[in-house]
Amino acid sequence: MPSKDVVAMHPLDPLSVSEIPFVADLLRQHTPLDLCFNTITLHEPAKTELLAYFESTGPKPDRKALVIALEKGTPQVHEAIVNITTSTVEKFAYRPGMCPTISLEDLEMVESIVRSDPGVIEQCKILGVEDMSKVYCDAWTIGFDKRWGAKRRMQQALMYYRESPMDNQYAHPLDFCPIVDTDAQKVIEIDIRSVNGERTPIPNKQYNYLPEFVAETYRPDLKPINITQPEGVSFQMNGNEVEWTGFKFHIGFNAREGIVLSNIRYADPQEGGKDRSMFYRLSIAEMVVPYGEPSAPHHRKHAFDVGEYGMGAMTNSLKLGCDCKGSIHYLDGVYSNRRGEAVVIPQAICIHEEDAGILFKHTDFRDGKCVVARNRKLVVSQVFTAANYEYCIYWNFFLDGTIQVELKLTGMLNTYCLHPTEEAAPWGTEVGERITAHNHQHIFCLRIDPQVDGVNNSVMQSDAMPSPHPAGSEENPYGNAFFCQKTVLKTTAEAACDYNHETSRTWDIVNPSKMHPTAKKPVAYKIVSRESPRLLAQPGSLVWNRAGFARHTFWVTPYKDDQLYPAGRYVPQTSGLEDDLEGNFNIITWTKEAANIENTDVVCWLNFGLTHFPRAEDFPVMPTEPVSILLRPTNFFKQNPALDIRPLQAQGESQYAFENGKENGNGEVTEAMKKCCV
Amino acid sequence: MPSKDVVAMHPLDPLSVSEIPFVADLLRQHTPLDLCFNTITLHEPAKTELLAYFESTGPKPDRKALVIALEKGTPQVHEAIVNITTSTVEKFAYRPGMCPTISLEDLEMVESIVRSDPGVIEQCKILGVEDMSKVYCDAWTIGFDKRWGAKRRMQQALMYYRESPMDNQYAHPLDFCPIVDTDAQKVIEIDIRSVNGERTPIPNKQYNYLPEFVAETYRPDLKPINITQPEGVSFQMNGNEVEWTGFKFHIGFNAREGIVLSNIRYADPQEGGKDRSMFYRLSIAEMVVPYGEPSAPHHRKHAFDVGEYGMGAMTNSLKLGCDCKGSIHYLDGVYSNRRGEAVVIPQAICIHEEDAGILFKHTDFRDGKCVVARNRKLVVSQVFTAANYEYCIYWNFFLDGTIQVELKLTGMLNTYCLHPTEEAAPWGTEVGERITAHNHQHIFCLRIDPQVDGVNNSVMQSDAMPSPHPAGSEENPYGNAFFCQKTVLKTTAEAACDYNHETSRTWDIVNPSKMHPTAKKPVAYKIVSRESPRLLAQPGSLVWNRAGFARHTFWVTPYKDDQLYPAGRYVPQTSGLEDDLEGNFNIITWTKEAANIENTDVVCWLNFGLTHFPRAEDFPVMPTEPVSILLRPTNFFKQNPALDIRPLQAQGESQYAFENGKENGNGEVTEAMKKCCV
């Protein structure tokens, strides 16, 4: 490994195109096994070690890689830690019974397998299809099927037909589902649906969205909107580190979580310009998309797009003016393929600024004295494709210190065919003739590793409560009293809780050792989510078992270096039952003992998302549907942290003072004052 | 009245600068009373009459004005309907016991009254202030004070001190509150707060936000973002009517509601380009801001900024590049002053387009075949100043047929002084030294007068429900079943309901006579609000009585021409008690009898907003806090209505087809196809 690279890199930088094959080679030299690589990714330094380095009290941590590999042609999984700095394999262990993520290569392989499988060919013939080049499938992990459990790695092939190579396959779903052994590379079963003893004809009407089919209907009337930054952008990049008007953080990327933001600080002029830490690490650590149609094989449709496939590996290469508009800085994404080679996704991460409307405004109604400043956001974004769906992820930083995590859902509905005797209701919507799109939920688990002015934080649940005293009582004579009830969550058991709309519930991550000088409350960042639907699957259901993290809106755990993924490190083909865990711990097991989470290093897990009852308007391609959460400074800054943003307008006496060079409150006219009215 | 004007005007156009004095003159000729005008505004035509005109089955309705006037120097209210077309006074009636909105002139007058009142001067002396030019007040309507009821019109003067004319008064609140008779123009009482027998010293630390004070701290680092439309905008204005890529509507404006959008239609290419109606009229019909500090005089702080002051009259004149960015079309706002003259607010309404991110995207993971189209919104906006607060209101129309109502709250916190022995908690936050900002809520009542493909609509409550059958049962073998439970709201009593987060509750406004051809559900627009906090004041409290509309999230009423304002037409100094109504009916009385609301002309009332526990960051000027609701087409369009938006990118085979002039599905290459990749 070229030592120069290692020296220059930030400890959280993703593995580079040279590091990935270097790691693969080291491991090949280490073991005689014929390995097929599943994951070669940065093994992030231990937190204590990395913080010591950040605070210049410890050395730069060694670069290390986590490797997950399979013995070729088998489901036997091995896990390694490779030290790149020292060129040594530190750990190499067999992980029996574990199924790692399904790779894009695994998915792509399934389509060719089913096309040439005699059983599948026979089923297609029954449905009237002879030309197998018109048969397509979206491979999904099997989820969990008790017929096989986790003994072999399997995928289910959701089958479709295309009239032409450009035709929309989601308009032509087929009624059977082959099961493929990923390692043996063959169809091992075909689940065939029968409705009253009959097969379901393929929906044959075309519903297309590609320009080939719809270009003639295009509206002529939209005039271009140009967004430019002639003087350049306001952020600076140093490798993967960003600085933007006070904010500083590191942008990581890995095959599983996609974008990871770390070491988020703010150079606070109200505290002498010193860096104040807010978050150690933010990522979308898991997600689940359970479908609500009760009959087989749809019960297996509940994709964990992080833990089963990887949001990073499925990331799109972005295009200027299409995915993002304005002055863009891009970062590539890098991950490994099965041969241990680096795969580069050019322009995987988009970094840009956007105008964000009014930041603050006030007019004195007496004299029209007025200031208006404009807000803007720094956006760090990616888009990934999970078979039919597209997820656009935006990490938005605002001038007032707010951080927003916004997801926009688009792409294609997962569809299924309706038998002529069937209705779509109540489990779906008939979005095209005899095409049903099933009810489903999207639940995203945001992992928030806070560092609010330091590592030791507590979490307070905030509930808006009316006074307990009735109107007319001495304590509440007019009946208008209400307050914010703050409850310190003391243990992991107490912290497993749900959003409560009745009390507009939020959660404050506080530093109990640092009080706000004026507000006399501990400095805090508040988690605001109004879009946290409950998991609608029943307790004891397959998805309830497997997606344990989704049983509550919110969790808090004591920080542990190896607790990154709330559904477990190995998600595919888990049953979710505890006796099936075999060391693959998840948030249910982590929180089993009521561990202390007060004034210590904690991690918060917030579930948010939406319940989607498909509409005709979502077909054949869905308009984006947004969902978002906020992290808001709450008595974190001494006062409005955006007060030092130059306003674009100052009217009335204020305007007059500028234009005429009049004195300010201290009898001075400064250059800044003269320039502040644009 | 110049008949030419009347002929050219749209029946919903606001009264013009020539119509307002014309109406005032007609009324002065009609009555010997010495009138002081409170309101001269468009009296909108009856709905049946206007619809007949729109549908060319009836004549153009006469232009009429509603006039509210006071006998000068008294609280005696008279109400008139003046027909401008025929130059006649159609109605002139005395309205005993009613208090009309407080005008800006009323508010401004109070400050000069209190400054010269001997009692106020004495109180200021006690607090150490000799120079009365440094004493300011925000006049508020008194709300309701049982000492006087509604027999005279009164305002409460929230008192402040300023060290210099530019100083922020909200940093120096005084501890007493004069009560002013609006018509007699004198102080009639001074409510003085005592804390353990002591007065509260004026907080004397300065917290400023105007450039004079903070310019020297401005950050130098933000580079300009330029937004231009070199080919012009994509919307057309015809007077107050807008057309934008399918959407058509009329923009009205009045002193009370500000922007009113009417006759909202969409020229639907999926139905042969014909105009399909969606909404007859949309406006923010009322709002209330109850404060939660239980002691007097704060119980009187619950401003109804629509019904007590008027969002239109308080509207800001907007500036390009400051309030709005890009290519802007402005409309002026016009209302009347007390002399019956027209007051013009230049550039009161901003109309512009904004890029709105990805509209839809899908990539075929096999071959990278991809389309991305960009969304944009048409924004119709206003900003109004309600003493300390600023409300920015955005009516956003999106290419996918979604209409969003977004409010951004900014401006100044209402503040009060703390006695040295007092703490701000639990009723407020100490945002500056000895300055408390009290807990409060902002509840906005959106009046939705739907016309979903016709006048006769029904409303269905939609609740996401798990299957009632347990996991393992025959009906729900895997436990994953869930569905959307639709409940038709049949009467006003059933329709008075609350948001339910447990079921992600939404409401569908449907046309039961028009089924979606594919989805086989009635065409609908869905109301989505996740931000509808409950009213925290107790039942029986003053604000609960007065803001009856806020007792539930949602209401539906049968349409009546005169039911525009859910807290009543005359809001100031109402007790909210029924025996006090005297013909001033509100939503509580309208919904008393369980009237039919099924398949008829209905109006929906949606409350949304937020509960605000002030933060230090909200001082001295608040960063905008957004809150919004959506109206989404739901099986209204045949399919995605934005499918005819030209994508900005088409990759893979699709790209290849364009670049090489290959055939489309029908063997043709069209010009549109060639142009679709930018």
From TrEMBL, chains A, B:
Enzyme Commission code = 1.4.3.-
Q: How is it modified after translation?
A: Topaquinone (TPQ) is generated by copper-dependent autoxidation of a specific tyrosyl residue.
What are its GO biological-process terms?
Answer: amine metabolic process
Keywords on this record?
A: Copper, Manganese, Metal-binding, Oxidoreductase, TPQ
Does Oxidoreductase show up as a keyword for this record?
yes
Query: One Pfam match, by short name?
Result: Cu_amine_oxid
Stretches assigned to the Copper amine oxidase catalytic domain = 225-643
| Sequence positions bearing 2',4',5'-topaquinone | Y389
Q: Identify the InterPro entries for this entry.
A: Cu_Am_ox_TPQ-bd, Cu_amine_oxidase, Cu_amine_oxidase_C, Cu_amine_oxidase_C_sf, Cu_amine_oxidase_N-reg, Cu_amine_oxidase_N2, Cu_amine_oxidase_N3
Gene3D superfamilies cross-referenced by the UniProt entry: 3.10.450.40, Copper amine oxidase, catalytic domain
Cofactors that this protein relies on: Mn(2+); Zn(2+); Cu cation
Is Transferase found in the keyword set? no
Per the database record, which ranges form the Copper amine oxidase N3-terminal domain? 100-195
Q: How is the cofactor bound?
A: Contains 1 topaquinone per subunit.
The active site is formed by D305, Y389
Q: Which reaction does it catalyse?
A: a primary methyl amine + O2 + H2O = an aldehyde + H2O2 + NH4(+)
- GO molecular function terms listed in the Swiss-Prot or TrEMBL record: copper ion binding; primary methylamine oxidase activity; quinone binding
The record's family statement is: Belongs to the copper/topaquinone oxidase family.
Question: PANTHER family annotated for this entry?
Answer: COPPER AMINE OXIDASE, COPPER AMINE OXIDASE 1-RELATED
**Subunit:** Homodimer.
Name the record gives this protein = Amine oxidase
Q: Which organism is it from?
A: Saitoella complicata (strain BCRC 22490 / CBS 7301 / JCM 7358 / NBRC 10748 / NRRL Y-17804)
Q: What broad taxonomic lineage does this protein's source fall under?
A: Eukaryota, Fungi, Dikarya, Ascomycota, Taphrinomycotina
